[in-house]
Amino acid sequence: MRPSEDPGGPPEARGAAEAIAAEVRGVAPGEVPGRLCRLAVRLLPVADAGASLHGDGVPVPLCAGGDRASYLAEIQATLGDGPCVSAAEAGAVVLARDLTAGADAGRWPVFAQQATAVGVRAVYALPLGSGAVCLGTLDLYRDTPGGLTGPQLRTARLVAGVMTRALMELPHGGDAWLDELAGGHDEVYRAVGMIMAQLGVGADEALARLRADAFAHGRSAYAVARDVLAHRRRFDPDR
């Protein structure tokens, strides 16, 4: 694995590229995302980092450097809302500089409340790919409000680019962990089909009901989906 961008430019940019190259040299593609999440915390002014795959509007957590990144990935998957969802939909970088006030707090109000409750004040989400082909997002979490400088954003883009390349280089069928993630995504949509039949509603409404139920009970959308598939949870029209 090598960084897919030219590391030219100022010394700090070259230093970041060299650190990324050293981190992924000789590493199997399936190990790269987790390594790069941890490296991002060392290279950038962020407290945690994670990555999610995106398909049909449902983010699937891929890896996380720490507990907060893992928790906030699950929250965004359950809500279907947040910076990583917006970045994946637009295929563009989303920089939420202050989740405590202003436009960023109002753009994703429930996510912002959940994030600030665990001490996260800013989030930077970078697409893994582009608007045409976006595999997911790299999500960076910061304890204090603020943005990224030009060189810092370049470093974040470089990390995302190498992560994208690693995912593209996975053999057909993926690693076992990637197959497991895809299985979780499929479980959600199989459960949505059952909820559609139970309530007589469309797919969007059924997915919204599943997400609302998960959030109301402090669970992930995947956990509720498994309960629906196992007939431990039923959605009744009068509830």
TrEMBL record:
Claim: Protease is one of the keywords in the record: no
Pfam families membership: ANTAR
Annotated signal peptide: none
Keyword entries, A-Z: Transcription, Transcription regulation
All copies of domain ANTAR, residue ranges: 174-229
SUPFAM superfamilies (alphabetical): GAF domain-like
InterPro entries: ANTAR, GAF-like_dom_sf, WH-like_DNA-bd_sf
SMART domains in alphabetical order: ANTAR
Name of the protein this chain belongs to: GAF and ANTAR domain-containing protein
UniProt organism field: Streptomyces rochei (Streptomyces parvullus)
Lineage of source species: Bacteria, Bacillati, Actinomycetota, Actinomycetes, Kitasatosporales
